[in-house]
Design a protein that fits this description.
The protein has one domain. Helices cover 68% and strands 0% of the residues.
Length: 79
């Protein structure tokens, strides 16, 4: 179940569903509900129920969040 095409294609989403790479989520993070499951099997099972549009939306949010947070951290180090 773990090494499927869908899982490999969406590895970044599955990782974000399990925990935030920054340890603390932003207030509007759509992944919070998945973190609350606190069970990798349930998180993956839930992922499989998501429509493709939702997966794309999560992917876009995650990529934007990482970019914004990395830029913010970069600028704070330069000060």
């Amino acid at each position: 179940m773990y090494l499927t095409k869908k899982n490999i294609k969406n590895a970044e989403i599955l990782g974000a569903m399990m925990r935030c790479p920054f340890d603390e989520t932003v207030s509007n993070c759509p992944f919070k509900i998945y973190h609350g499951l606190n069970n990798p099997v349930k998180q993956i099972e839930t992922f499989y129920t998501l429509p493709e549009e939702e997966v794309k939306s999560l992917q876009q949010f995650h990529r934007n969040c990482i970019r914004e947070r990395c830029e913010k951290e970069k600028y704070s180090e330069d000060i």
